[in-house]
Design goal:
disordered N terminus; Beta-galactosidase, Chain A, domain 5; single chain
Length: 843
């Protein structure tokens, strides 16, 4: 806007010379110019004509100048608009301490997409990780090698049993017939963040005959890490291992030592890798079969790869393979050697029994803290239920990753996608196997649990996300940073568009912090963090309030729906987070979305509370919250008079279906080998109306975010509907879409199964339980009903998630509303882990 005002100012000032010229011309007619004595004027009439011509020329110059200035201003302003999408918000950075400024969390399991991987919180970190395979099960193309978390690997279960987010973690992996345990303990200190020890142990936990396993531990430098690594094999040194130096780590050494079982064969690969995403393929491509002197055959790695010039290529990828006889265990030690004199005795990280003792102490400390925070034993939960809850918390904390890179973004002013600025992101991920990256609306739910466990980790995550705020006030909703993250994302989801929002769920985290952790904000600089955060929250809130507003006052609309879609039964609303939940069948600018209005109302209330805490006392947030929470105004825009339910409004018809086009003579040749894809057919023309034939999660938001008045008769209607088995109630939790809705469990395309059209989602059930507890505590006509439903729903949700975990070994993305079976991807230890807060009743 500043540039726009400047352009306008230039235009006004540009007219001034024209006015001056007119005035001058007038005065020339009244007072003729003096004549030069040496050359008297021969033709006064011609002089006046010349003056007139000069005036016209001057006027044309002025006009042309104004036009040029306007054109330049226009294109300059367009250029300004183009750059806004990838221009950072200009304010103090949120992240104040990272890398070596925070040595306690410098090293960590920050590669959640790997079964086990370690790295530092540096933009370009050295990375380490584990691969394994059974020689008997190795298949074509590397099938059977475990590296990245993949659903197709069909592991029986895997996940962290203990993880504190700071000093240690312990994980179990069941890959029939093997049980692997991976653990690490950090020893902070020294100049470059200290040392650590990791242990990988394997046993055969079935009766199947399989006595060998090959473990591969690798060290790699990403494409931009400044440093070098080398491998010193056993035959060359009494201290074999991987030695290296980087700018972030100084000098270091990595040692691998078998501590249990019989080592059968050892080999290594020292090579150059073009990308971290290719490491598994590089390993497989270099496998060789060797025969030892004893006549035994092994799959081996070839050692150092020699270039065509007979010089060893500078390696950035070193892998050490150990094939052992079960039961088998190795300890890996990382030792920082910078800052010590030659010959000086450098303290070594513990291995063997000493490491076992340290790990046991860490586990004991974790168990004590867990009970102090969640009080589950005190509440009477069984040992197995407490173990399950520890798994859920540990996997939420253990799924926190550290990413670095730039998103691809686009605005209406950019012809093609442009890169966002490069930045780090410290964030939890929804699913290590399927969504190993940051999602904006997921992270607000994650923060509810993380803040209970470690407030500073939660605030650090918030800081990283809000350093991604651009000058417009927009944060890309999906963060795909770095080559490993990008490799797991279909191309259609990579580009982020700055018109598109996502529910502002960080206000849920902030509300919980302000409510349950207010006393803790006065220490460790936490209050200062909120001070820095406040102006960014203001800008973020303003972006939502301006860009997502609807066609009438108080209405809001999710942008990003495809009005031209022919394949979708109901065009998706990915920006709402509820993806394929049915909205108005024909997207227009006249839509009003009830859930978005409630999110803005809730966000305004949190901003008001935060402004008071910080001494800002910003009245506009109280006014906005009061306006959007006014039940009469809410009812005017969103309450259907026919069903007495809250609903979206838009151009809608229920008479739609997917139908395969007929193959005609005209297109028969083209499609003779395949069928045409199904398209949507509209059987009855839509009209502007409430979308009240649909009832599900989106319709509940006035209740979920506690905006509806406690004595409203429409609260009573909602309570009856959610407790009705024919609508939302099940023995396993609240289903996402009523069984009476026209699109209940309908595919959105012939390829897309129903997602938010019936299955049970734990994040919304958490909000429902939170709301039921809220209304049950306010004395009123419906408090008793709210308490009854709360107790029943809580038991149903906890019982089903726990049973499914025992049956399948996983926490799931969603649960079937008919059977309670886990669905979607697994493990999904993002917001489904909120079951722990439900168990402990920490809302």
């Amino acid at each position: 806007m500043a540039r726009q005002r400047k352009a306008g100012g230039n235009s006004n000032s540009a007219t001034t010379p024209t006015t001056t010229s007119s005035s001058t011309h007038s005065s020339q007619q009244q007072t003729p110019l003096p004549k030069k004595p040496s050359k008297p004027a021969q033709n006064p009439g011609r002089s006046r004509t010349t003056d007139s011509g000069l005036f016209i020329l001057s006027k044309w110059k002025t006009i042309i100048g104004c036009v040029c200035l306007a054109i330049a201003s226009y294109f300059g302003y367009l250029g300004y608009l183009e750059t806004r999408v990838n221009t950072p918000y200009d304010s103090d950075k949120m992240v104040q301490r990272t890398g070596l400024d925070d040595p306690d969390r410098y090293w960590g399991s920050y590669r959640p997409g790997n079964y086990f991987g370690l790295k530092t919180r540096d933009p370009h970190s050295l990375v380490m990780g584990l691969m394994w395979y059974s020689p008997q099960n190795l298949g074509h193309g590397g099938k059977g090698i475990r590296h990245w978390c993949e659903i197709s690997d069909n592991l029986d279960t895997y996940g962290w049993t203990h993880h504190d987010g700071r000093t240690f973690g312990m994980q179990e992996i069941h890959d029939l017939p093997f049980e692997l345990k991976t653990s690490f303990v950090k020893y902070p200190g020294k100049q470059f963040g200290g040392d650590w020890t990791s242990r990988i142990s394997v046993r055969n936990y079935t009766n199947a005959w399989n006595s060998q396993i090959s473990l591969i531990w690798y060290v790699a430098l990403d494409e931009r890490t400044n440093g070098h690594i080398k491998y010193v094999p056993d035959e060359r040194s009494s201290e074999p291992g991987i030695y290296g130096e980087t700018s972030g780590l100084g000098e270091f050494q990595v040692k691998i030592k078998p501590v249990k079982g019989k080592l059968l064969h050892k080999s290594h690969l020292s090579s150059a890798a073009h990308s971290l995403k290719d490491l598994k393929e590089i390993i497989f491509a270099h496998f060789r079969e060797v025969t030892t002197k004893s006549g035994r055959r092994f799959i081996s790695l070839p050692g150092e790869m020699i270039s065509s010039t007979s010089h060893v290529a500078d390696p950035n990828f070193i892998a050490v393979q150990l094939t052992g006889e079960l039961d088998f265990a190795i300890d890996i030690t990382y030792q920082s050697t910078s800052g010590f004199s030659v010959g000086e005795d450098i303290p070594k990280p513990p291995v063997g029994r000493e490491y076992t003792k340290t790990l046991e102490e860490k586990i004991e400390g974790f168990n004590e803290k867990f009970e102090e925070v969640f009080h589950l034993r005190e509440k009477g939960y069984s040992a197995e239920e407490v173990k399950f809850a520890k798994y859920a918390v540990s996997n939420m904390i253990g799924s926190i990753g550290y990413f670095y890179g730039s998103s691809k973004v686009q605005s209406v002013y950019t012809k093609n996608p442009v890169p966002y600025w490069k930045a780090p992101l410290y964030t939890a991920v929804p699913s290590r196997s399927f969504f190993p990256r940051g999602f904006l609306w997921d992270e607000g739910f994650h923060g509810l649990l993380i803040s209970s466990w470690d407030l500073d980790i939660s605030l650090d995550i918030i800081c990283h996300w809000f350093d991604l705020l651009n000058v417009e006030g927009w944060i890309p909703r999906e963060q795909i940073l770095g080559v490993e993250a990008l490799a797991k994302v279909p191309a259609e989801f990579v580009i982020q568009r700055n018109t598109n929002a996502n529910p502002p769920t960080f206000f849920l985290t902030l509300k919980k912090i302000l409510t349950q952790h207010r006393k803790e904000l006065s220490v460790k600089g936490r209050f200062a963090t909120l001070e820095r955060l406040y102006p960014r929250l203001q800008t973020w809130f303003a972006w939502f309030n301006n860009t997502q507003k609807g066609d009438v006052l108080g209405a809001y609309q999710w942008r990003g729906r495809d009005a031209q879609s022919e394949r979708e039964l109901n065009p998706k609303t990915l920006t709402s987070g509820l993806d394929d939940f049915p909205r108005a069948s024909h997207p227009t600018s006249q839509e009003r979305h009830v859930d978005l209005r409630c999110w803005i109302a809730f966000a305004a209330s949190v901003m008001a509370e935060l402004s008071t805490l910080l001494g800002k006392n910003d009245a506009k947030y109280y006014e906005t919250s009061s306006f959007l929470s006014d039940n009469k105004l809410l009812n005017d825009l969103h309450l259907s008079p026919f069903t007495e339910t809250y609903a979206d409004y838009g151009l809608h018809t229920d008479s739609v279906m997917l139908k395969r086009p007929q193959i005609t003579q005209r297109n028969a040749a083209k499609y003779q080998q395949q069928q045409l894809e199904m398209v949507r057919v509209t059987l009855k023309q839509p009209d502007l109306r409430f979308v009240d034939s649909t009832f599900g999660y989106a319709n509940l938001f006035p209740f979920l975010l506690e905006i509806i008045d406690h004595d409203s008769p429409y609260l009573n209607k909602i309570l009856k509907d959610i407790h009705n088995p024919n609508i939302l109630w099940t023995k396993f939790g609240l289903r996402s879409l009523s069984k009476t809705s026209p699109l209940y469990m309908k595919r959105n395309t012939e390829h897309d199964p129903p997602y938010w059209r019936g299955p049970i989602w734990i994040n919304i059930n958490y909000l429902a339980l939170k709301a039921l507890r809220h209304y049950g505590r306010i004395e009123g006509p419906y408090a008793a009903d709210a308490r009854t439903i709360y107790n029943e729903l809580r038991q149903n949700v906890i019982g089903n998630i726990f049973r499914e975990y025992q049956r399948s070994g996983y926490i799931w993305e969603q649960y079937d509303d008919q059977t309670g079976r886990g669905k979607g991807c697994s493990p999904f230890t993002g917001w489904s882990s909120l079951v722990v807060l439900i168990m402990s009743e920490q809302y």
